[in-house]
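User: I'm curious whether this sequence folds into something compact or stays loose and floppy. Could you predict its structure so I can see for myself?
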Amino acid sequence: MKIYIAGIHGVYETSQINQLLTNSLVTFWEKPKFHKCHREQDIFLDSGAFSAWSRKKSIDLKDYIRYVKENEEWITVYANLDVIGSARRSWRNQMKMEKAGLKPMPVFHTEDEPYWLEKCVNEYEMFCIGGMAKGFSRKERQSFLDRSFELVEKLGGLDRCKIHGFGMTSFDLMWRYPWYSVDSTTAVLVSGMGGIIVPPRRNGEWRYDLPPHGISISEKSPSAKKLNEHYTTVPPTVKQMIDDYLTENEYSFKDCAESYLPRRELNIIYYNTLQDAITEKGSNWDDTNKLIPLL
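Assistant: Here's the prediction. I'll summarize afterward.
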């Protein structure tokens, strides 16, 4: 499975980030300009339809088509310009983009009827599932995704379709379904808020199949005075675990406490390793797992 890191725009802040980022999601809403540092990246272009919709703005389809064509040498995959709340109008855009010679990935949303998911499965090798980033509880997202993947499986699509999950920040849902790829802003957001993501350790082994710890480490963090919420207030055993993780990845507490950049690098390392772990082990999607609700 691929995890696309979202939320980093333009030229990356450090050469280390350039080296660490293997998969990056950018959005047409930001109209990023590509540079030589993007050459080695797997770039996923999102239309930015949700960003525009949430700001009560619109995106011109002709502008989006023009941008994709002008930057095709940089872009690995790109999504259709979907219309939030209208599957029919979204599909109309899909047809217009294809008529223009492009091959966008269609997007199935939480509010869409199953008919549109059937079209995705029956007519496309790759498609996206979206509309889950905001406004839904984890239980609601799981219920929607369980129904969606059950239908995909019923139609014989699990073996032949590559499915991308938009805004898939939930650790449990990343593991639960057989995604081809997902994207997440968590690495960027957590580092910007003063935190790092650390895998749990069991019997001396870092475990990427168990939910990670989000640890505040910035010296400016308001949680510095809250028990068990900051590096300085956690128990000695937890602090030692964090120290060991930092040391093994060649980072220091001082650097991570003073700047978001080393924190961002460290969080990208976590997601790169999580990506490899899920790819190696495979998702938890099976008949037994479908019957077990998330806690």
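Summary: Confidence is low (pLDDT under 50) at residues 291-295. The radius of gyration is 20 Å.
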